[in-house]
Amino acid sequence: MLENKTYIETFCTIQNNEITLNGETIFKSDSDLFADFSKKAYQNFDINYPKFFKMDNLSKLAFLAAELLLKNEIDESKENDIALVFANKSSSLDTDVKYQNSISDKENYFPSPAVFVYTLPNICIGEISIKHQLKSENSFFIFDAFNSEFMTNYAEVLLHTKKAEKVLCGWVEYYNEEYKAFLYLVANEGKTEHNKQIIENLYNK
Amino acid sequence: MKGVAITGMGIISAIGNSVEENYASLLNNKTAITTIENISTVHSDLRKVGEIKKTNQELADELQLSADNNFSRTAMIGAIAAKQAVQDAGITSINEYKTGLISATSVGGMDMTERYYYDYFEKPETIKYISCHDGGDVAQKIADELGLKGMVTTISTACSSAANAIMLGARLIKSGKLDRVIVGGTDALAKFTINGFKTLMILSDGYNMPFDNDRKGLNLGEAAAFLVLESDEMVAKENKKVLARVSGYGNANDAFHQTASSENGDGAFLAMEKAFQVSGLKPEEIDYINVHGTATPNNDLSEGRAIVRVFGEKNIPDFSSTKPFTGHTLAAAAAIEAVYSVLAIQNNVVFPNMNFKTPMEEFNMIPQTTLKQKNIEHVLSNSFGFGGNCSTVIFSKSE
Amino acid sequence: MEALKQELKAKIIEVLNLEDINVADVKDDDALFGDGLGLDSIDALELIVMLDKDYGIKLVDPKEGKNIFQSIETMAAYITANRTK
């Protein structure tokens, strides 16, 4: 069977206080903390979504990148068939640690439900799905490092078997102020070819 | 459509340490929701759980691990279940064909992290457990125990994780990327999850009562289960016995709330609909639904409404939740219930939904409350996770 | 009572991360859930933790929160009647 080629429509990277979209820097700040950086980015792009401030860091990171890729992509008047395939290394460790601290002190034992909610990595996918009303297939994987082969295969299978019209793939890693998001939208049409090598190059940029 | 062959399975749960023991408990109404013994927690008297009554040392001995091992409890029970599955499938030389492992977990090595959290600085001998915290470590350890060198990956989509592992495995077989794949999930009990679910106020203070009007929440449980999926070429070549087939699967996002399910179960509805599309089956062909049925007020109402939408209120097949037996085993739940679905097909039996007394006022849905013998061709199994991740798998008899 | 209401407003804004809302914006009888401040079920659970932590009031059934958390007014009245610290 001759399989159709797939393409990368757009891609977005967030790391070191900088956001790049399709390779070009679109936002930079000199923040010391991610909380500050993410707030400035939110304000800069006029994202009017107060729930953003209730999210954990991993969700904020994924949400921001998805927002920039999807804001011109989503047509609210119809069903948007975009699958989400995400992965990272540390799962929800950053929030797990915060939560663990809240239950480990017997004298001051008040675990927070709002923190516990985010002790799963796929909650960030949920946040994106809620914002953009995506009811399509979604999954979250854990790898030692960015696995371009796995991601490429998965996105292709979804497109070839018509399980989705587009696939939003993402690596979203956050632990202790160290972070990197690399999200890209894969479709049946486009200019940049979707293959393992190109994904790898874009990730490492 | 024929579906992907299941050729082996293994399980360890609160109601048994093997497939046979689990089946015997299901037949004899032997539920296992008890006071927790292996973890010291202030909640032990207040919140009952589905616990595997083996200490970490007993599990380590069973696996013949060396004294300096750094296996988390999650990895140990996972390795035990995966080994059973591989043995059941009659696999002796695991790297002979393209073989993969897709393992689901949500807590990973949390049990060891919380046990030694305060000791890391004072007791250097505990430091080895830091590296076993990652979810990915569990899958790698299981692969090492199996001697597997092929593709290994970890899925973490909360309580639907193992269903997604089965779905991905079936796809990899269908697309020819793998010849066989071991799929399933494992999660051990941890203070982390007991406390967390308590803060969400969805833990029952007694025994979970799925689809009962007076249900008060879930009991957590721990378990691991794995299935071996193989391509038809492998089945023919090795003359394998097929236990049942994975004939359909679907996943959708509820896009409603971080933890709560939507009022009408949109995600659940879409997941079931997609599973029917893949299988080519119609709702009336389903003989038994193993519902997610966690017994939280929110889940059972949302799932029930979705089932009514798919099947019609008058045409709902026999259904039950097996969580009163095992507790809710989180990322492992869908693998546990996959084993039970295959057992239902093999033995032509519907397992009872224990602890049910009063029908819910919102709709006319009465679960099967006693063991029922009847021919079973197709079983639909639901699993829904936080983050809105909803999955359905359909299992069918192999002809 | 007046001081408690002001205190609650400030706490809710802080604990629930309500960005761009000031104490002055919240009226005593504004609905906290739904159309008012737009709080959701997780926020309600967080408020239950707050009652326990700051006022020594333990709720066992999340449904109890429904009446208590209607507005700042109802919350302050409940806390005044039931607080143990």
Automatic annotation (TrEMBL), chain A:
This is 3-oxoacyl-ACP synthase. It comes from Flavobacterium swingsii.
UniProtKB/TrEMBL annotation, chain B:
Residues 1-397 form the Ketosynthase family 3 (KS3) domain. Keywords: Transferase. The lineage of its organism: Bacteria, Pseudomonadati, Bacteroidota, Flavobacteriia, Flavobacteriales. InterPro entries: Beta-ketoacyl_synthase, Ketoacyl_synth_AS, Ketoacyl_synth_C, Ketoacyl_synth_N, PKS_Beta-ketoAc_synthase_dom, Thiolase-like. It comes from the Bacteria. Belongs to the thiolase-like superfamily. Beta-ketoacyl-ACP synthases family. SMART domains: PKS_KS. This is 3-oxoacyl-[acyl-carrier-protein] synthase-1. It comes from Flavobacterium swingsii.
Automatic annotation (TrEMBL), chain C:
InterPro entries: ACP-like_sf, PP-bd_ACP, Ppantetheine_attach_site. It holds the Pfam family PP-binding. Keywords: Phosphopantetheine, Phosphoprotein. Residues 1-83 form the Carrier domain. PROSITE patterns: CARRIER (PS50075), PHOSPHOPANTETHEINE (PS00012). Coiled coil: none annotated. Gene3D superfamilies: ACP-like. NCBIfam families: PRK09184.1 (NF006617). This is Acyl carrier protein. The lineage of its organism: Bacteria, Pseudomonadati, Bacteroidota, Flavobacteriia, Flavobacteriales.
